[in-house]
Structure prediction request, 538 residues.
Amino acid sequence: MTQVPDKLLKRQAILAGLATPWLANGRELAPQHPEWKDKEPFASLLKGDVEGALARGEHAMLEIVMATHAGMTTEEFTDVVNNWLASAKHPATQRPYTEMVYQPMLEVLAYLRANGFKTFIVSGGGIEFMRPWVETVYGVPPEQVVGSSIKTRFEVREGKPVLVRLPELNFIDDKEGKPIGINSHIGRRPIAAFGNSDGDLQMLQWTSAGQGPRFALLVHHTDAEREWAYDRQSSIGRLDKGLDEAQAKGWTVVDMKQDWKVIYPPAKK
Amino acid sequence: MTQVPDKLLKRQAILAGLATPWLANGRELAPQHPEWKDKEPFASLLKGDVEGALARGEHAMLEIVMATHAGMTTEEFTDVVNNWLASAKHPATQRPYTEMVYQPMLEVLAYLRANGFKTFIVSGGGIEFMRPWVETVYGVPPEQVVGSSIKTRFEVREGKPVLVRLPELNFIDDKEGKPIGINSHIGRRPIAAFGNSDGDLQMLQWTSAGQGPRFALLVHHTDAEREWAYDRQSSIGRLDKGLDEAQAKGWTVVDMKQDWKVIYPPAKK
Prediction:
């Protein structure tokens, strides 16, 4: 479990949410799937090349989720997530992944709520992966989380109603999907939106096109020393069009290295 | 517009949400669709037989929604709903449809909220039909509404980002769909659930199977004089299995005629 590459969970739930199912039980399932040896993204994962698998994008990641969790109930999946989070540590800092979040973002969320805003998380990560922990970490309850999802089926098992996870994609909450997911889950246009990649571009466009005052912000990962530095050329979390549009439209761009005094919250005892 | 049959909107948003698109622009579109003359549910509607069309069930109703609103943006659809609600009156009472709601249900919602509960609407009706008015009427904000939906597409029209309604079904929030919709939108199991038809059965099963105290209630429409009387034989809003299961599991059943002193709220001036 601690073999997760440094890069993997540093960049937030979008990747973690999709890679977790593999970590949780993909390896155990592999012997039952000899075809994975020659089939991506499974082949890369079996070779331990998580980066290579991730570079194939979210569709590849969702294939992993679907392949590894078909038949599991939503409650069993929540247990998998909770168990993994309880034991996993970031390999560089040895801190739990739930502490590897951005302190300035925690502060802006708290500030908005203190001023009468309702806060939501809108992520490409798996919605059922995020919900078990985002309330504790970000103060955002499960019903205010929008994310990617697979389909589920209602079933009565031994007299008990359960929701079973199906190997079928339901929704990808990325790029054009973000305003669609916001409309579907929230049903109104945000007053303010915060992003850090081109996957957030349409959400920021949708937000800032609303009537009356709106606020759009991009976090630019510029700090190779304290966190990570990437933008226009990165295969994961690319920020390219967003930087151009931010300049053209006057969106706020945070330069992590220049603007953030602290990246991560202080370690909990 | 006032030719809507008495029965149609009396039984709440589930039917109204689906029939509205026809009322709003189905008749205008009919000349462009000569095939509707021989194709249900359109043929019934063209003959003015709204009851006959409704009896074909929600799939038929969603066909109407899809046929009549493809290409419209979500904001244009909201305007259609608002304009219709502003002028439409219940044919028997001459009251706006937004006042034809159940006073005891308004009271229980207010009571729950006053005691720290968060309240949601989970309806087979169209989510985009309900959201414009349920906050005013029920005190439930748009993000706490779960309903049936069609797919949308993000598009930039004349430089302005919009969400376009597509002629494609996304989700039917009825029967097995209700716990699925609750899990998808809310992400946690309800403490209490209230229903009035077999379309609510799986939601009540899912709710009452949770750990710790849970509450499940069915409203039984028994008052032909003040409202409507129907249950096991009705083609719309049938309540049959639910009555049996309520007895077997000890769910609360409200007898509208016996138990409700008032059905509708007092008329607004």
In short: Residues 73 and 164 of chain B are 4 Å apart (CA to CA).
